[in-house]
Each structure stands twice: as C-alpha cells, then as structure tokens.
C-alpha cells in the first residue's frame, strides 16, 4: 500500500460533475441499464467470480457512452472516464501509468468512502490494445494488454484492489484474443431499439414542432429507423446552425458576447415537419455531413 501511495501523481480522470444538457431527460434502455449495473455490483460482491471487464460494442452513434455515463451517475457510482486514445504515449509504459494510478485511486476510494467506482475506457477499439488491418503490435500495445490481463487475473485473488472496468467501442474483433477470454471479459452488443429512438426524438423536437406535427414524429423516425441515434441529434443541431447563420447574416455591428443571450432563444424557434425531412435527406446525400447551403431571408 505504501508503494501505491508514494506513486508520482498523474492525471486524475474522475468526473466530479456530468452535464448532460438537453439529454438529461433521455430514456435509458432497461436492458442496457441492468447489464451495466449487474457488472458493477457483481465485481464488488463477495464469493462472485465476475469478469473484471465488460465490453460494450455496437454501431457508432447509438448512445453506448452516453447511457453508460448516465446510468452510473444516477446510480451513485463514481466515474473514472478515460478515452482510449489517451492510453497512447511517446515513451514506454505511457499507456498504463495514468490508468494504473487511477485504478488504484478508485480502489482506495471505495475502501475509504464505501462508494462504488467504475473505470470507463471509451473508444477502446482505438487504443493501443487494438491492432487493425494487420498492423503489428508496438511496445506500448504489448505493455497495455499485459497490464490489463494481469489486472483482471489479480483481481480474482486480491479483493482489496478490485474496481470494475467497462470498455466501450464499435468492435472488439481486433483486440488481443487472450484479453477477451472467458473469465476476463464479458460482452454486450448494443443496437438502439426503435422505441428508444422515438423517445429521444420526442425530447429533441417537442419544443420545435407544433403539437399537431409532434403526433407524426414516430412516422418521421420510422422513415429513418436504420440510422443511429446520433443522426436525429445532428438534425436538431443542423436546425440550430441554420438559425445562427441567418442571425449573423442579418445582424450588423455584431458583438458576439452580447449575441449569445439572444442566440439561446434559437432553440425555441419553431420549425415544421417538412424541414426535418429536408434536413434528414440533405444529411444522407452529403454522407452525414452538414453543409451551409440555402439562403436566409433577405440574403442575395
């Protein structure tokens, strides 16, 4: 323990506050919630041989990270959030030094405060633990996979130093096979159901559409049911960006700082359902990219 406490202080990845913004009221899928909480609770229970790692995989933009963070936050679980890209580095062992210290910090926090913690590594498929298209392993990738394997194996016998880990990525097919072995890692594949897309779209557009048109929001979602959750969120962002562009186009002697308060009202500007369809088609034709097209009122 003394060795752990005397380690060089590195970056603290624990989240003290999580601002979910407009997604605060988003509905969490009950199956997703039960899988995440069962993994966390199971790792703290005695006489339960739960794998240390839970790998959540699925198409990008389907709310894997958002739901995991929201579930943990609302369930009293302290979150240590690390991006997979941050596990890279210029020198040997850079891939594990921050992870190692934050893991120890999580274990000590539970021991002292009796508050469960979870390590969340996002975009794990982009971390050094994953090799793609036949690219050979690096020193850091070998060190990271070795550290993770050692961590989950030791966690079975050293109860004092055990904190559950959730890995989030699009696919884990390129992750080192021994790390994915039974007993080390459980898998949960996620694809947002249509009902969740209904709920999210309702929350996104209820202040922008009339009550009459909101009754047709399910038809709109069904027209693009194969698209990820992020597709509908980006349509909302496209509306806001168009309103902002037109605002600045029509304004003279602009003071951006003062304009921000006025711009906040843009979120309440009404649109019609036809505009949503037009923006959706525009996104599909432009390969999911927003382009500044069309003219504002009074624009040449």
UniProtKB/TrEMBL annotation:
A Pfam family annotated for this UniProt entry: AAA
GO MF term list: ATP binding; ATP hydrolysis activity
Listed InterPro entries: ATPase_AAA_core, P-loop_NTPase, RCA-like
Ranges of residues in domain ATPase AAA-type core: 56-188
Family: Belongs to the RuBisCO activase family.
Name of this chain's protein: AAA family ATPase
Originating species: Roseburia faecis
């Amino acid at each position: 323990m003394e060795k752990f406490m005397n380690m060089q202080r590195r970056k603290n990845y624990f989240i003290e506050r999580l601002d979910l913004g407009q997604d605060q009221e988003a509905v969490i899928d009950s199956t997703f919630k039960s899988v995440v909480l069962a993994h966390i609770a199971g790792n703290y229970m005695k006489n339960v041989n739960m794998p240390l790692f839970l790998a959540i995989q699925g198409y990008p933009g389907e709310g894997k990270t958002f739901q995991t963070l929201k579930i943990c936050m609302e369930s009293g679980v302290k979150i240590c959030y690390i991006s997979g890209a941050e596990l890279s580095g210029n020198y040997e062992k850079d891939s594990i030094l921050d992870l190692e210290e934050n893991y120890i910090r999580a274990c000590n926090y539970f021991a002292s405060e009796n508050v469960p913690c979870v390590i969340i590594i996002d975009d794990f498929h982009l971390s050094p633990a994953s090799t793609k298209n036949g690219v050979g392993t690096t020193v850091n990738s070998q060190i990271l996979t070795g550290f993770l394997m050692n961590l989950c194996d030791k966690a079975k016998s050293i109860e004092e130093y055990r904190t559950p880990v959730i890995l989030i990525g699009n696919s884990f097919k390129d992750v080192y096979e021994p790390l994915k072995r039974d007993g080390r890692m459980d898998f949960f594949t996620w694809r947002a159901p249509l009902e969740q897309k209904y709920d999210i779209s309702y929350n996104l557009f209820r202040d922008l559409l009339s009550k009459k048109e909101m009754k047709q929001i399910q038809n709109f979602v069904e027209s693009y049911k194969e698209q990820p959750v992020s597709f509908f969120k980006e349509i909302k962002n496209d509306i806001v960006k168009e309103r902002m562009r037109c605002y600045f186009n029509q304004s003279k002697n602009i003071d951006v700082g003062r304009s921000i308060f006025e711009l906040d009202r843009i979120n309440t500007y009404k649109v019609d359902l036809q505009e949503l369809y037009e923006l959706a088609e525009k996104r599909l034709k432009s390969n999911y990219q927003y382009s500044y097209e069309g003219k504002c009122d009074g624009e040449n």
